Amino acid sequence: VSGTVRRHQCYNSIRTVPHRKQEAVPNPEQLQWLQAATAAVHLIRARRNSGDYKELEPFLRAVQPPTMTFFQALEKSSAVELYTYVTLLLVCVLLYIFSDYLKICALAFRLPGPTAYPVIGNCLDIAKKDLISREMSEAYKNYGPLARVWIFVFPMFVVFDPNDLKVILSSKKHTNKSMFYKLLHNFLGRGLITSSGHKWSSHRKLIQPSFNIAVLEKFIDTFADSASSLIDKLPKEETILNVTEYVNNCVIDILNEAVLGVPVNSDKKEMEQSPFRQGKVVAPYRITHPWLLFNSIYKLTDAATAELNQKKQLDDFTRKMIRRRRETLKTLTPSDRRCLLDFMIEISNENPDFTEDDIIDEACTFMLAGQDSVGAAVAFSLFLLARHQEHQAKCYEEIQRHIGTDSSKQPTAESIRELRHLEACIKESLRLYPSVPLMARKIGEPVRVGKHTLPAGTEIMVLPYATHRLEHIYPDPERFDPERFGDGAPHQNPYAFIPFSAGPRNCIGYKFAYIEMKTVIARVLQNFHLSPAPGREEVQPIFRMTLRARGGLWVKLTPRKAVS
């Protein structure tokens, strides 16, 4: 419209170019086209504040005759011919837009995978909550190093082999998360787990120094205090209990202090009612009800309303914690304990682009993602140590040697570093039962995986649960053998063990998690002997956002003094 208003001025500008003065005035059809074209030129010049009509004139002169011939032919065409022209044009445009999608589908039809049905793909299996649990452990044997899964008409490719995973996970070209991570935006926000592109890379660069090992080791007192609180809550006589419940509460206490700055020994009434403790992730529900993956349908449900209300509560609570820490920072002394919120507030003060909303997103990410993942890892480790007495005894001897025989003595950074067999046991537990059993990425450019080339835009899944059970890497993979990660173990492909992912987009807090897990487990073993609970020796994993055990993880707990 703005171009049409000024078209005469634009046309006059071109017509007054010196070497056009001797040429004939265009006929009416040419004039109409030229007026429209010069209006567009004027609009471009106005927007970009650059350009020279003299430079554009040769282009206009070159395209005018064939363009006019084409439009004159259209004007004289019949309705059928016109519809044919439009249809062909639409087909060409659609083929161009969906060319990558068609390449991806063509590859998917050539690859093995679970039985899929037209249009709905594997959604029926997903709705039964059975696809991953049934297929995962035997997937490599059944399908080979590369398989496919259909989510409606959208194919996803599952990559199992560590060498292929290295090609993808080690490259900065493939750091964008899958479209399915958008399902977590109303839970985790747009933090390090769910964001992609420039936002992820800039936030990672800003926050990374806060996870330096020297900084993390200062949290050991927080870990130890929370573990001591856990020990006080455990029964003082021999009993059988579900360790999952106790451990999860301990991990939440740790995160309250380490992330938000709320001390373990403070008044817990406020934190007991915090949305972080009550929060529920809706993404698994949407994945197991695939029709809810469409936002137009999902937003009509009660679940969507509840999720938005929960997100508001999380944001409001975190904003209150930020205001509180801003006041605390004014009087903080070097000897006072610091939390991750303090570091992010300082980052925001020095980098205005890192806003308070960004702090909220990252705090929600650390609080919510850190609860189930670390809690599950600690619970599985205790359960496996109860079943394998020889490794529990070795860990206890190591604890006595480096921390001391006094069960009330707190570990230090140096003593935690020396608990190498305990660390090997934790890693073997994570191999068998990785806290995050599934991850997904979006391919940024064509990449060769085995015998196939994955086009740009391909959605891939990484299944640590399956990769950790490859027999050519881990012989007898179902056996609990911490020596696989012992000091004398042979060097292995780093992409064969990926409980925290790998490469530039690995978990930023994996060192934090290892120190936390070692401290909590060491304090428990200092005070209690673990043994299997009769009739509850087996575990049935449930595959959700984090790996869980159906019915919990039960052990027999005996105080060490009673054992003596």
UniProtKB/TrEMBL annotation:
Pfam families: p450. The chain crosses the membrane at residues 82-102. Its cofactor is heme. SUPFAM superfamilies: Cytochrome P450. Keywords: Heme, Iron, Membrane, Metal-binding, Monooxygenase, Oxidoreductase, Transmembrane, Transmembrane helix. This is Cytochrome P450. Heme binds at residue 507. One of its GO terms (molecular function) is iron ion binding. It comes from Anopheles dirus. The keyword Metal-binding applies.
